[in-house]
Amino acid sequence: MGRLIDRVLARIVPTAEASACSGGYFCNAAGHPGYWYRFCCPQDGCEWTKVRSSC
User: Fold this and answer.
1) Do residues 37 and 26 lie in contact, with contact meaning Cβ atoms separated by under 8 Å?
2) Which contiguous run of DSSP H or E holds residue 52?
3) Helix extents (H) in the chain
4) Mind listing the pLDDT tens digit of every residue in the chain (55 residues)?
5) Sign of torsion, CA 43 49 52 55?
């Protein structure tokens, strides 16, 4: 099961990062107004992480 998830992440994230974050930034991600976010999947689970303020 873990290997399948690793393969899916490898397709989403071209470069292997420790945090396995998506390459694209999204404004107002997951309903958070006025900020740039990106989707990261560290070992303890996936979440939106704030990149910088103001879109």
Assistant:
1) yes
2) strand 47-53
3) 2-12
4) 456 666 665 665 555 455 688 888 999 987 888 899 999 988 788 888 888 888 8
5) positive
Distance CA 55, CA 36 (A): 6
The model scores a pTM over 0.90: no
In angstroms, the CA 30 to CA 38 distance is 10
Residue tagged 């992440």 (tokens): 9
The number of residues in the chain equals 55
Strand partners, 3: none
DSSP state of 19: S
Q: Greatest CA span in the chain, whole angstroms?
A: 38
